[in-house]
Predict the structure.
Amino acid sequence: MKRQHVTAAVLAASMAGALGMSACKPAEGPETPAASRSASAADTNRLLQLNDSLREKLGADYADSWIEGAQLHVAVTSESAAAVVTEAGAVAQLVTLDAAALEAALQAVMAWRATLPAELGNAIHKVTTNGRTGSVEVSVAPGQADAVKAAAELDKPTGDVPLTFKDSPGLATPL
């Protein structure tokens, strides 16, 4: 029992020393890469908070958002929503489909995938929405895109919502 207490004390002292040493590193100026990463993370967090606020405020007019060129871009379905986005300091893009319509189309693809023969269904690695383009993106195993695309053209699982297909760079993810 005594040995365990000694071991614990040595471990605690070592950790305290290591933590104390880490606090001694030189301060970084604004021109250092680590400082730039911190500022960038802070900017990104601010943009994400703005996005959350706009999503709540816009409701059904909200379609999607993305950060590009250190600016928040928000896809919306009405001129009045675009004005709110612009007033908030983000870049508005008018689109025809809102987030709910895209989500419904995504769910339709998921249900359709379950009806496909195993080889085709398993070839679909990922399904996402893209509010910028007003489409559902389907990532497909290389070499299977033509077959999956042909099945989708025949079955039309999303109705009028366009499907885009791209080669998947990796393994299937649980859908």
In short: The two ends are 50 Å apart (CA to CA). The beta strands are 62-68, 71-76, 91-94, 124-130, 135-140, 163-167.
